[in-house]
Amino acid sequence: MPLRDVIRIAYGLQSYQMDGWPGWLSSEFFDIQAKASGATTEEARRAMLRALLQSRFKFEAHMYTRRGNSYELTLAGKDRKIGPALKLSTADCTALRRNLPPNPQPPAPNAPLIVCGIRDLPGRVFALGVPLDSLAATLGNILGRPVIDRTELAGNFDLDLHYTPDPMPAPSALPPGSASIDPNGPPMLTALREQLGLTLVARTRPLELLAIDHADRPSPN
């Protein structure tokens, strides 16, 4: 994967929280193989990944705050009804995870989710058994700015959102096996309202950003 995504994972960031990176961080791809000495937490794995970045890429960065554009995800109608493509989930996520094979393979694009989660494909977002703050985070990645869940809807949901991206991605940019995108479909905001009964309200808020101070290409193993 590109180093930009490795950095994002290591610091637990969304893509819009990264500022001032050299172009090669997005255009050059790396394989990283590393193994912990025992069981670890997610935060411990991120800390080890940050140490790897500092050691192999001489990576340096700092966090800072500035005001920027964001959205709030809210219910579109005063009656607070949700749309036809959004429903409370009845999935037993614990049982689904327990029944996974030892080394499950990633499902093909557009394949039904076999365990609770959310998937973002060009022109489609679908999920099984997720809270709406997971949808908000996914929308933030698509739109390039923070999206905060203000729906006050509790519980886990299933959803299937179809929209036409702007701009339309080139066919070569789509994952193999992806369904075609309707060029005449609704834009994101219209799709959210009509399919999920949700809308986005523009706001400004303080944003936490990671400024990249230094990164070198790694030396060979």
Name the shape in a single word.
globular
Tally the beta strands.
8
- Stretches where pLDDT is under 50 for at least 5 consecutive residues are none
Please give the radius of gyration in angstroms: 19 Å
Helicity range: 25-40%
What is the tally of helical segments?
A: 6
Decide which structural class fits the backbone.
alpha/beta
Count up the domains: 1
As a percent range, the share of strand residues is 25-35%
Largest sheet: 4 strands, mixed
Q: How do the SSEs run, as a string of H and E?
A: HEHHEEHEEHEEHE
The N- to C-terminal Cα distance equals 18 Å
Instruction: Estimate the mean pLDDT confidence.
Output: 90
Order the strands across the largest sheet as they lie in space: 1-8-2-6
Main features:
single chain; four-stranded mixed β-sheet; four-stranded antiparallel β-sheet; 6 helices
Short description:
It contains 6 helices and 8 strands; from the N terminus they run αβααββαββαββαβ. By secondary structure, the protein is α/β, with parallel strands linked by helices. The mean pLDDT is 90.
Secondary structure topology:
Blueprint (H helix, E strand, L loop, with lengths): L2 H9 L6 E2 L4 H4 L14 H16 L2 E16 L10 E3 L4 H6 L18 E5 L2 E7 L1 H12 L3 E3 L7 E6 L25 H9 L1 E17 L7
Parallel strand pairs: 1-8, 2-6
Antiparallel strand pairs: 2-8, 3-7, 4-5, 5-7
Helix pairs in contact: 1-3
How would you explain this protein's 3D organization?
- With 221 residues, the chain is of the alpha/beta class.
- It has one domain.
- The protein has six helices and eight strands; from the N terminus they run αβααββαββαββαβ.
- It has helices at 3-11, 24-27, 42-57, 93-98, 132-143, 188-196, and strands spanning 18-19, 60-75, 86-88, 117-121, 124-130, 147-149, 157-162, 198-214.
- The strands form two sheets. A four-stranded mixed beta sheet has the order 1-8-2-6. A four-stranded antiparallel beta sheet has the order 3-7-5-4.
- The relative contact order is 0.24.
